[in-house]
């Protein structure tokens, strides 16, 4: 589907477009990514964004990083993908290392230690909230709930290596999904 | 040093290839490798680095370059980043070519449906491990619970919740 309102970015535009996205997306880049790519830059239509995101969620790796790679590929192949992804992670990497320097230099100071302990507890709370919100689509699906519990127990309680847990649980879950659909 | 860099490369390449359902699913394994297996840092340090990465803008896996840097300086940062972001990106490029062909294949749907509960279980395990590492006093446990509750029931921006946690820790810790 060719949309006349779609702009075709150069490699440079990809780099700087994703650089600004990376630097401005606090607390999760996904909602901002849609706004930037579809509404502001017009690199994708709404349907294309949803389809591309579906693909990126299905693949290993961070959704938003995969999305930058897919966007770059679409317009300029491998070099476009590199430009988009490097743009996305360059700014946040610099910021995160800066914060790391501050943490390493001052974490013996009691105030700084307490500040970071509170920050870490809040970050853990956000992760708990995310897990709770993700449970919703499992409602009324006992089979899926059992699989989720199995994965939770294997990693969270038994501390199993991820590779073995994935090799055991994922095929089982996919087979159950296939059987349920037939 | 070379051994450490090699270990970082192996760990994060593996995590890159296994990170179905986004970065958060591999946190338990990352913590197991970095804290238990290689003992590069304590669980509390891991929790703090993760929190720093959450407070910074950008993708949610920015804890990776930070861990690499913490463990082995600039070369560690580079090795961890390339190992974590490279392989999954190459897979994305490859699959993009095949995407249209698989679009209507029923197994694509089954894989998607089957991966969902696994992803949820892994995220829940990440949450449990982070809570165990960070909720070391009753005050911090309250911070975890209140932030979780606020994030579920309100639309407050996560950055405000992180800042609130830091302020509570600083004043009452």
UniProtKB/TrEMBL annotation, chain A:
Q: Which GO terms describe its molecular function?
A: chromate transmembrane transporter activity
Using the UniProt record, give the first listed, main subcellular location: membrane
A GO cellular-component term linked to this record: plasma membrane
For this protein, the record's Pfam families field holds: Chromate_transp
What is this protein's name?
A: Chromate transporter
Q: Which family is this sequence assigned to?
A: Belongs to the chromate ion transporter (CHR) (TC 2.A.51) family.
Looking at the keywords, is Repeat present?
A: no
Membrane topology note: Multi-pass membrane protein
Q: Which InterPro entries match?
A: CHR_Transporter, Chromate_transpt
In terms of superkingdom, the source organism counts as Bacteria
Q: Which organism is it from?
A: Pseudomonas turukhanskensis
Residue spans crossing the bilayer: 14-32, 83-103, 115-132, 144-169
Regions annotated as coiled coil: none
Q: Where in the cell is it found?
A: Cell membrane
Task: State the UniProt keywords alphabetically.
Answer: Cell membrane, Membrane, Transmembrane, Transmembrane helix
UniProtKB/TrEMBL annotation, chain B:
State the annotated membrane topology for this chain: Multi-pass membrane protein
- Transmembrane as a keyword? yes
Q: Give the UniProt entry's GO cellular component terms.
A: plasma membrane
List locations, semicolon-separated: Cell membrane
- Which PROSITE patterns does the entry mention? HSP70_3
Which GO molecular function, any one, fits this protein according to its record? chromate transmembrane transporter activity
The organism's superkingdom is given as Bacteria
Annotated TM spans: 6-27, 77-98, 110-129, 135-153
Which key words tag this protein in UniProt?
Cell membrane, Membrane, Transmembrane, Transmembrane helix
What InterPro entries does the entry give? CHR_Transporter, Chromate_transpt, Heat_shock_70_CS
The family line of this record is: Belongs to the heat shock protein 70 family.
Q: What is this protein called?
A: Chromate transporter
Which organism does this sequence originate in?
Answer: Pseudomonas turukhanskensis
């Amino acid at each position: 589907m060719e949309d006349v309102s779609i702009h075709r970015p150069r490699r440079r535009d990809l780099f700087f477009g994703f650089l600004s996205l990376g630097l401005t997306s606090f607390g999760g880049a996904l909602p901002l990514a849609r706004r930037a790519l579809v509404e502001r830059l017009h690199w994708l239509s709404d349907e294309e964004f949803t389809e591309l995101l579906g693909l990126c969620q299905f693949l290993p790796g961070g959704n938003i990083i995969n999305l930058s790679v897919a966007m770059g590929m679409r317009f300029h192949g491998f070099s476009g993908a590199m430009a988009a992804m490097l743009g996305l992670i360059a700014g946040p990497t610099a910021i995160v290392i800066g914060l790391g320097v501050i943490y390493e230099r001052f974490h013996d100071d009691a105030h700084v230690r307490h500040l970071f302990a509170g920050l870490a507890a809040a970050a853990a709370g956000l992760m708990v909230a995310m897990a709770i919100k993700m449970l919703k689509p499992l409602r009324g699906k006992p089979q899926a709930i059992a699989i989720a519990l199995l994965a939770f127990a294997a990693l969270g309680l038994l501390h199993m290596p991820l590779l073995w847990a994935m090799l055991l649980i994922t095929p089982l879950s996919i087979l159950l999904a296939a059987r349920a659909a037939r | 040093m070379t051994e450490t860099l090699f270990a970082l490369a192996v760990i994060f390449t593996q995590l890159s290839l296994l990170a179905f359902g986004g970065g958060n699913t591999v946190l338990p394994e990352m913590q197991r490798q970095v804290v238990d297996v290689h003992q590069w840092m304590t669980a509390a340090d891991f929790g703090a680095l993760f929190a720093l990465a959450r407070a910074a803008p950008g993708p949610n896996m920015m804890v990776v370059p930070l861990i690499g840097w913490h463990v082995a300086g600039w070369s560690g940062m580079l090795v961890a980043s390339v190992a974590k972001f490279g392989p999954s990106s190459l897979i994305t490029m490859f699959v993009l070519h095949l995407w249209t062909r698989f679009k209507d294949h029923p197994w694509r749907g089954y894989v998607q449906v089957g991966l969902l509960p696994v992803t949820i279980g892994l995220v829940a395990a990440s949450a449990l491990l982070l809570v165990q590492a960070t909720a070391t006093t009753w005050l911090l446990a309250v911070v975890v619970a209140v932030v979780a509750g606020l994030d579920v029931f309100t639309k407050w921006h996560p950055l405000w919740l992180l800042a609130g946690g830091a302020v509570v820790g600083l004043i009452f810790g």
